[in-house]
Design a protein that fits this description.
Elements (H helix, E strand, L loop, with lengths): L2 H8 L11 H4 L6 E6 L8 H8 L1 H14 L4 E7 L3 H13 L6 E6 L2 E2 L4 H9 L14 E5 H11 L6 E8 L5 E6 L4 H5 L10 E5 L6 E2 L13 E6 L3 H7 L2 H11 L5 H4 L2 H4 L6 H9 L19 H6 L6 H14 L22 E2 H7 L20 E5 L9 E2 L6 E2 L4 E4 L9 E2 L4 E6 L3 E6 L4
Parallel strand pairs: 1-2, 1-5, 2-3, 6-10
Antiparallel strand pairs: 4-11, 6-7, 8-9, 8-10, 12-18, 13-15, 14-17, 15-16, 17-18
Length: 445
């Protein structure tokens, strides 16, 4: 079986949070294979620790993916502040005889260093065209945990677990391995907070993560972190604002200062993403929605909303509003140029991570979250059939059926983009729906 089918059968997806099926990403040839080890979201600590714990496996996974797409070079992007990790990875690359093929490049501690288009430019000096993907400039990107999962797939292990950081205003920030399908409440319960009444949970990192209206969900393959903050924290109040309220405030208070545009990571790469123009359209009730197509260039990194705007408005939210209106009318942005150059001011407008963390009120919580051994013993697991971009998996088990950990329980629909799904525990299927499978774990049967 070739690597692509091994990865496909193992259900490997982008573990950085997006969840794009990895086998689909590796179907095209590329000049570079890039490892995204930036982990630019504040407080999250997964990738840096995985590289320290599993350097050989991650190197082997990256190499295998790179050889498959016939890349001439494999480059690992790791922030320069992680000196021990960088030294270790360089040492292991040499020890594994890959120094002629693979190298580690140090990234600056900026936000969003992990944005795929920022990463491509930082590592290769190439610029991905507007509304396009890294493959357009000969690059394929995989995340550190994805590389680890590729290595495991090569050893016959499907993806049945993910690594998660619990951080924020809590007694014990930590990172641990979590079986897919475990209740989020059980995960959050490890952090030492006894009374959740005063807390709100952000699913993912503090910049791009969304507030969870309830925590009754279940861990998926793309779960990466949960940030707990008090209800009155600036970030919670900011993220809690409704779209309608954000629009009203934006109409009345935008100064057209351009800071949202001047610090926009995609604008600085030469793209036409200009949030201040979208805010202007909102303020002046400009009705021609076609003129707002540039909103579709927004990567939703939230830099404009949480760092740049001097009066705490919501440019990203307004971009999302116009994205929705454009989608409703079937309008898609059409680039007017092919070649792009980074703007000359870019080097002076990069956002330092420490300043960002201070601006969003997280300095006191910017602590290590050490890898911790935690054994989860759930009575039930609930495994989503759609944990990825694309069509949901189709269940291949029925109620009452006994399953083993690692067993295929959901397969990719024919001629569809998707990812296979596997059980993370031995147990008995007690419920099967179109969107999920519930399994009672053996020790409770």
């Amino acid at each position: 079986m070739d690597l692509l089918n091994i990865i496909k059968d193992a259900g490997v997806i982008g573990a950085g949070g997006a969840g794009f099926p990895t086998h689909a990403k590796l179907t095209s040839k590329a000049e570079y294979i890039l490892l995204n080890g930036a982990e630019c979201e504040p407080l999250l600590r997964v990738d840096q620790q995985l590289m320290e714990l599993f350097p050989d496996e991650i190197i082997r996974g990256l190499e295998a993916a790179g050889r498959y797409v016939e890349a001439n070079k494999a480059i690992m992007g790791i922030k320069g502040k992680h000196k021990e990790v960088i030294a270790l990875m360089r040492e292991r690359i040499v020890a594994l005889g890959l120094s002629n093929y693979m190298e580690v490049m140090e990234l600056r501690d900026i936000y969003p260093a992990g944005d795929e288009q920022v990463l491509v430019h930082e590592l290769t000096q190439r610029i991905v065209p507007e509304a396009s993907i890294p493959l357009k400039v000969g690059c394929v990107i995989i995340n550190s945990e994805t590389a680890l999962n590729i290595s495991k797939a090569m050893s016959g292990q499907p993806v049945t677990e993910t690594y998660v950081t619990i951080a924020g205003d809590i007694p014990h920030p930590m990172t641990f391995k979590v079986p897919v399908g475990v209740a989020i409440r059980d995960v959050i319960g490890q952090c030492g907070v006894e009374n959740m009444t005063d807390y709100v949970v952000i699913d993912g990192g503090p910049m791009m993560g969304a507030i969870m209206n309830n925590v009754d969900g279940y861990v998926t393959k793309k779960s990466k972190g949960y940030v707990l903050l008090k209800k009155d924290h600036f970030l919670i109040r900011k993220k809690s604002l409704s779209l309608d309220r954000a629009r009203i405030i934006g109409k009345t208070a935008c100064e057209q200062c351009r800071m949202c545009t001047d610090l926009c990571p995609r604008y600085l790469l030469g793209h036409n993403m200009q949030p201040h123009k979208i805010m202007r359209a909102l303020s002046y009730h400009l009705e021609d929605i076609k003129e707002q197509q540039i909103a579709q260039l927004c990567c939703e990194c939230n830099a404009c909303e949480l760092f740049s705007c001097p009066v705490n408005l919501h440019p990203k939210t307004v971009n999302i509003f116009y994205k929705q209106k454009l989608a409703e009318q079937g309008i898609k942005y059409q680039p007017v140029q092919i070649d792009f150059q980074a703007r000359s001011a870019r080097e002076y407008r990069l956002i330092p991570s420490k300043r960002l963390i201070a601006k969003i009120g997280l300095t006191a919580f910017d602590k290590s979250a050490p890898m911790t051994q935690v054994e989860f013993r759930p009575e039930y697991i609930r495994i989503a059939l759609r944990q990825h971009i694309g069509a949901p998996a189709i269940a291949v088990v029925t109620a009452g059926e006994q399953v083993k950990a690692g067993q295929l329980i959901g397969e990719i629909p024919d001629n569809s983009l998707g990812a296979s799904v596997h059980s993370s525990f031995n147990g008995t299927v007690i419920e099967k729906q179109d969107n999920f499978i519930v399994i009672k774990v053996d020790s409770y049967v």
